[in-house]
Amino acid sequence: MSGALFLGVDGGGSRCRARLETAEGAVLGEGLSGPATLRLGLDAALRSIMDATRQALATANLGEDAFARTYAGIGLAGTGQPGARQALESWRHPFARAWFEGDGYLALLGAFGGHEGGVVIVGTGTIGVTHLRGRTVRIGGYGFPVSDEGGGADLGLNALRGALRALDGRSERSAFYAEVLQQFGADPSALAGWMTTATATEYATLAPIVVRHAQQGDSDAVALMLKAGAHVAELARALFMLGVSRVALSGGLAEHVKPFMPADVRDRLANPKADALAGGILLAKTRLAAETAKITEVQS
Amino acid sequence: MSGALFLGVDGGGSRCRARLETAEGAVLGEGLSGPATLRLGLDAALRSIMDATRQALATANLGEDAFARTYAGIGLAGTGQPGARQALESWRHPFARAWFEGDGYLALLGAFGGHEGGVVIVGTGTIGVTHLRGRTVRIGGYGFPVSDEGGGADLGLNALRGALRALDGRSERSAFYAEVLQQFGADPSALAGWMTTATATEYATLAPIVVRHAQQGDSDAVALMLKAGAHVAELARALFMLGVSRVALSGGLAEHVKPFMPADVRDRLANPKADALAGGILLAKTRLAAETAKITEVQS
User: Fold this and answer.
1) What is the pLDDT of residues B265-283, one digit of tens each?
2) Is residue B107 assigned to a domain?
3) pLDDT value at position B300?
């Protein structure tokens, strides 16, 4: 084996990222693809994982033969769904070994390098994660729309509700709401049709419009971001209340929502040491080391 | 023809009602069946319409031969969906004649007997409807979850969000939230699985739990009802702002939400003259009379 490679994969509701490193921690390549959440189905998630991974290999100038010496730590949204774990374990992946965890767990590993702490992911969905007394504890993250408040899909839904309310005179019209409706040709029946099949990932495509208008000071967009900030703060508070000493934010929307969080919680937030990709690589290294130790134990 | 019969049908997201009358207005029978909204598909809606109609005929001791002298005014939720009207018009129904309108339009006809006014339906969804300068104007009602705030499905969703937040320590637990979760065996992953296919009709099955706990004074349930009341009031206010002089509530949740509406709007509400079934019968009579007049005109 000409040097083990370590792959970290961070799969979320809107995108999937991959990073390939040497055992010494030198970054060889990265990749980015579409959504990798089990909520959009196993096949779509695996396709995104492999897309991002192949990109990472390509930027590293490595061929498919490198798979055999690659150890992968893969984080995915939606692993809490019934049957999700079993389905993942039965995947005939091309790696030397692969380990799967929820995306929150990998963000946590990355943020505190495996040490004590908690993390709130703010992406398409939201979830609070910590590790207490040998057990992973999740707050929220049961899926959109019954949970995941403050994430991109929730922001998108609230933007649509506001836009429709403005459309027919229930509230004030604004350039912000006009731009939201324009995504559907300003046609509410087109929006209603879209809604019948829209996934959280699709609702989340509207979040950047909210973020931009809030940054430009639109009062409705600011109100939606403050609501998201309050929800994210609630997740962080629940972690603090469990006795977690430090909490960091992670995920694609984290830095956008942060300025809209209540100051008392925002000021208590820790800076994450590294991202969920680093968490994935750490997972792969730790699990490989544990297995190697076991094998040595059995042989000696 | 041994006397024309008139049938009013009120199809909503949670139930479908039918009423059969003579030309003179004597009620012969009524029927009640499951959801009749185009959002659950045309076939399911037509099945519910026929179920409720057959019950009405049965209580009237009439056989299927009575269809041929029955004129039906049928109201359905979801008629605003693309292609909905065409699909309905092509239905090979058994009636002498059948006319289709949105459920809101029939509630409006029933509430004010065809005279000026506006109505807010509070059922599985919500919608404000009025008739202005020869045109039907709708406020809201674009479908759950992007619209229909304050209806049964929205109440159910908010109850679930609250219950999950209480479950993992983001907010206070209560007997109310415990009962909501108990619908899923207190198992959040069962709830998450249910959610992946749940329709507005299914979310609305939780609304009676909210209503009951609010009546018993649970503060979380009261807060949810007040939020619903504010949304219903917003729909009424939008109708008043269009110049509608009187607005009535209609729908299965109307009387439950009313006590939780802001007093200024609640005190302005008119009492509906009759229900949407009466509106359906009025629709059938009016349309039949207009067609008969046209035929007479052509013949003379």
Assistant:
1) 999 999 999 999 999 999 9
2) yes
3) 64
Question: Cβ-count burial of A161 within 10 angstroms (0-12 exposed, 13-18 middle, 19+ buried)?
Answer: buried
Q: How many domains does chain B have?
A: 2
Tell me the two tokens of residue A173. Answer: 């019209």
Domain extent for B261? 152-266
Q: Which residues contact A127 (CB under 8 A, 6 or more apart)?
A: A102, A103, A104, A120, A121, A138, A139, A140, A141, A148, A235
- A123-145: string of b/e by CB count within 10 Å (b at 16+)? bbbbbbbbbeeeeebbbbbbbbb
Helix, strand, or coil (residue B251): coil
Q: Is the CB of A161 inside 8 Å of chain B's CB atoms? A: yes
- What local confidence, expressed as pLDDT, does residue A39 receive? 87
Which domain CATH number covers B159? Answer: 3.30.420.40
- A174-216 confidence digits (pLDDT tens): 999 999 999 999 999 899 989 989 999 999 999 999 999 999 9
A90 and A67 fall within a common domain:
yes
pLDDT value at position A183? 97
Q: Do residues B171 and B231 both lie within one domain? A: yes
* DSSP H or E segment with residue B206: none
What is the C-alpha separation between B5 and B27, in angstroms, rounded?
10
* Residue B118 contacts A, CB cutoff 8 Å: no
- Rounded to a whole number of angstroms, the distance from the CA of B135 to the nearest CA of chain A is 15
A237 interface with B at CB cutoff 8 Å: yes
Is position B214 within any domain?
yes
The ipTM is 0.91
Residues A182 and A102 in one domain: no
Return the beta strands (E) in B27-134 as ranges: 27-33, 70-76, 97-102, 118-122, 126-132
Residues of chain B with pLDDT under 50: 1
Residue type for position A37:
T
Question: Does any domain span residue A134?
Answer: no
> For residues A72 and A99, what is the distance between their CA atoms, to the nearest angstrom?
6
Of B142, B145, B192, the CB nearest to A188: B142
| A110, A278 Cβ separation under 8 angstroms | yes
What is the length of chain B? 300
Does position A1 have pLDDT exceeding 50, yes or no? no
Tens of pLDDT, residues A256-266: 999 999 999 99
Within 8 A of B40 by CB-CB distance, chain A residues are: none
The answer to whether residues A254 and A213 belong to one domain is yes
Judge whether B147 lies within some domain. no
- Whether B235 and B287 share a structural domain: no
Q: Which residues of A touch B145 (CB under 8 A)?
A: 145, 157, 161, 195
Mean pLDDT taken over chain A:
95
Residue with structure tokens 């209609």?
Answer: B250
Regarding whether A54 and A71 lie in a shared domain, the answer is: yes
Residues B159 and B79 in one domain: no
- Kindly state whether residues B106 and B161 are assigned to the same domain: no
Q: Tell me the C-alpha distance between A37 and A12, whole Å.
A: 5
